[in-house]
Design a protein that fits this description.
Distance between the termini: 21 Å
Number of helices: 8
Strand content: 5-15%
Oligomer: single chain
Strand order of the largest sheet: 5-4-1-6-7
Radius of gyration: 16 Å
């Protein structure tokens, strides 16, 4: 497998969290299946992957649209997050991406831009041993518009003090890749560098 490298033009690095630094996707998927199954919804891996990086409440809103259901998005979204938290110790670190982050720690500004919620994002960083490496974290709690809107990554750039064009984003999901490109950043898909969760 090829080695993950930074772009020579990059002056700041932004990492997505779920599926990029932490292999949480299988855990998130099972949490969604457990909760949605109670409401009679057979949630497919294909749809789950299409919504990678979208916060839980918005995911439930999308599920209502697709499945013609009327779940309380706020309630079910938080139910799913609670189920995920119960299982999150099962996640694994994604070594090639973490190695890259550690290599540039202290050399370039680094931020994490996630569609997850703040408290769980910090807990994830703790589980994978990165809590002390990250100072800037922009989560779903900090933005009005989640990915594929560029707001998450633009806020990261702003907090790092780096122009968007000089930021390299590492992502695993299509919404995040779109957000990085809309922000005018260098977008790098990390799923070429490890065995990924598949539909």
């Amino acid at each position: 497998m090829k080695k993950l490298e930074i772009d020579p033009k990059a002056k700041g690095l932004i990492f997505d969290l779920d599926g990029t630094l932490a292999d949480t996707m299988p855990v998130h998927f099972v949490a969604y299946q457990n909760i949605l199954g109670k409401y009679g919804i057979d949630y497919s891996a294909k749809m789950f992957l299409a919504l990678a990086g979208v916060p839980a409440v918005e995911t439930i809103e999308k599920i209502n649209e697709v499945y013609g259901t009327s779940l309380n998005a706020e309630e079910v979204g938080h139910e799913k997050e609670a189920e995920y938290e119960r299982m999150m110790h099962e996640m694994k670190p994604i070594e090639p991406v973490i190695d890259l982050l550690k290599r540039y720690h202290g050399k370039l500004p680094i931020a994490v831009g996630t569609g997850g919620y703040n408290r769980l994002a910090w807990k994830t960083l703790e589980i994978i041993g990165l809590k002390d490496y990250i100072e800037i974290l922009v989560s779903a709690n900090d933005v009005q518009n989640s990915k594929p809107h560029p707001e998450t990554f633009l806020r990261c750039a702003e907090q790092m003090g780096v122009a968007p064009a000089d930021c390299q984003v590492f992502e695993d999901g299509e919404p995040g890749m779109i957000a990085a490109r809309k922000a005018g950043m260098i977008a790098t898909l990390v799923t070429d560098y490890y065995d990924v969760f598949k539909a």
